Amino acid sequence: MTKRLDMENQLNRIGMLVLDLKAGKGFAELGFTLEYLEEEFNRISMSLVSNWFLGLPSLSYLLDFHAGETSRLMGSVEELKLKGNPLDADQEDELQLHVCLIRHLSTLSLHLERLNALRLQKPARV
C-alpha cells in the first residue's frame, strides 16, 4: 500500500478570510470569532504535525508550501487597514481579531520552521 501524495492547502479557510478582509468586509460581518481562529490554527498545526509524523514523501514540499503561504498571508494581513471609529467597541473587537490572526500566523511560521528542521534530522522511513 502506498502513501497518498495528495496535499491539501491547510490555510485555505484563512486565505479566504484574508481575501474577504482585503475586499473591505469586517470580521463581524464574516462571522469570525477569536474562538474560531484559535480552533482553525489548532487544526492546521495538528494536520501538519500529523503529516510530519507520517513522514509523507511529499513532506518537504508540503512544509515549504505552507511556509510560503503563511508568509504571504502574514504580509496581506499586515497591510490591512481596519475601518471604523477607533473608540467603537466593534473596532476594538476587529483589532483583537486582527492581532490574533497575526499572532497565529507568526506562531505557525515558527512551527513550520521547526518541523522542517526536524524533518532534516529525522531518518527516512522505509
Task: Outline the structure in words.
By secondary structure, the protein is mostly helical. The chain has one domain. Helix content is 71%, strand content 0%. The protein has helices spanning 12-22, 27-30, 34-54, 59-79, 89-121. Helix 3 runs parallel beside helix 5 and helix 4 runs antiparallel to helix 5 (89-121). 20% of the residues are buried.
Give short descriptive properties of this protein.
elongated, mainly alpha, 0% strand, 5 helices, 126 residues
Q: How many distinct domains?
A: 1
Would you list the SSEs in sequence order as H and E? HHHHH
Total strand count, please? 0
- Provide the residue-averaged pLDDT: 84
Helical residues, percent: over 70%
Query: So what's the oligomer here?
Result: single chain
Q: Provide the gyration radius in Å.
A: 17 Å
How much of the sequence is in beta strands?
under 5%
Largest sheet: none
What's the end-to-end separation, in Å?
12 Å
- The SS-based structural class is mainly alpha
Unreliable parts: none
Number of helices: 5
Note the overall shape. Answer: elongated
